[in-house]
Amino acid sequence: MALGFLKHKWQKVTLISVGVFIVVLFGAAIIINRSWSAILSSKIKKAVTEATDGIYTINFSSAEVRVLEGKILLYNIDFKLDSAVYKHRQQQGLAPNNLVELHVKRLVLSHIHPFKLYFKKIVDIDRITLNEPEVHVTYQLNHVKDTLDKDNRTVWQKVSQSVKYIHVGDIFLNDAKLKYTDYSGKKVGITELKEVNIQVNDLLIDSLTQTDTTRFLYCKDVIADINNFKGNSPDGLYSYTLKRARFSTLTSQLKIQDFKLVPTANYFAKTHKIRYAIKLDSIILNRFDFKTYNKYKSFSASNLIISRGAFDIFANPNAPKIYKDKIRSFPHVALFLVESPFKLDTLQIKKLDVSYSEYGKKSHRSGTITFNRTNADFYNISNNKAALQKNKLLTARVSSHFMDRAKLNVSFTFNLTDKLATFSYKGHLGAIKLSALNEATVPLAMVKITSGTLKSFDFDFDANRNFFNGKVTMLYNDLKVSVLKNDEVDQQLKKKFIVSMFANLFILKHNNPDNEGEIPRSFKVNFKRPIDFPFFKTIWNTLLLGIKSAVGLDDKTQKAATARMSAENLKKEDRQTRKEKRKAKRALKKKQKEAEKKREAAEKAAKG
To answer: Region Disordered: start and end of each range (predicted)?
Structure first.
């Protein structure tokens, strides 16, 4: 018999009691689920309205309280702006700069404690999960500093009449879509992100955390992860990608992995600007003040570390000559063109390969200069007026391997408050075989260095936006070159024998010092910057003037050499002319003799 095991009365009583308890429990759960859904809906809507001063409203199609599972489910949630309230607060000067709107199909609150909410007015939830939420954040600069509201109570003080405190262990926004619209610039900036995961840890709103500045929006930590992000620059000239970006409000650290910025395929068809390509393995920003940036777009951080990668620059060979002041390309001038306040204590660059390429119109080839395994430290990068009162100098120390061979050390000091944009730079380049420069000199200067060793190259300059004054010392020996020409027939570069010989014999100084034991030659450079010269071009020209003087190619020598070459060419042409005349005269005499012989032979034949 199926119920034969119920032989004793106590067994029957126990079974009936358990059955009644289960029925009552499930019945109570059903009643609670239905009645508390309305209570929960009312509580949530009231709390949002109170906490946001009516700027936001929240609605959802339905709510379920599953007591036995310890869950609350909300469906079709819309967290929206009340435009009427927002406009009114704008008129009062009290509207926030950042606005957030959110849509979620389903929100799950796990391991809730409903009796605490009902009897003790305590919201205590272990986890909230939002799957595939759509978040739209807009930024509009309504004020540049915190405003004082008539109702300056904290969020906890505003909701404390409804609940004693609110605690959520973790909040997960999985695979979110984020749209960010910025109205603060001249043009509306729109950024859309996919595959965004956000994790919020320990959300706590109570009497203690209401003034806790270590928390962000009452959260101990907010971690945002972005994966496989792609985008295009506003002008459409570049596309960029990153594999992963991660930011934590607790550590104030932003990490970016595998960042790439590449020009579009038809870049030079759209613009005449210099073309850039950037690939960076790692970018780390430490102690980033996200709260201030989020409110007012004021950037402040302790240090930025860029590790490994490549930075390639290619000049447009067909760029038209535009005569305008390019002082904006100077780093300390460009810094003040940033509209928002900016302060970065230290920028560190580690093992970055930098290359500059340009197309030689005469050679029909590209020349490249490289700075390999570059390390650099920049200190006090700022346009913040308060910070500049304490320290007005931006300093930089750069070390690299020029053409992947010679060690190069350069230092810069920029005055960030001087209207003339004063700065200084000095450096030292170590030993290198000069033939290593042929990658640049052959296509760009049509000169091939056949021999020579650079022992050292030193420079020291003081400069401003108008004048560059300094000294260059270049120690080398056994310098010889070949001057090239482009053979249009077989598209090959060939040596100009006469010009090369002339340069090596009469122009170039093959050694510095000329003889062992003598004092080396140093050369002063005084250069007035043409206003259309950008920063690096100006620096390169000042160094080039010193190099030319060192090897005997200063302006005075070049003019004399050109005149001498012209004179030599005239003499050569004169010698060639006289030679051709003598040759023609000999040929005429020969013909006359041959004609005389033929005439004499004809006369003998006639007599015979």
So the answer is: 562-608
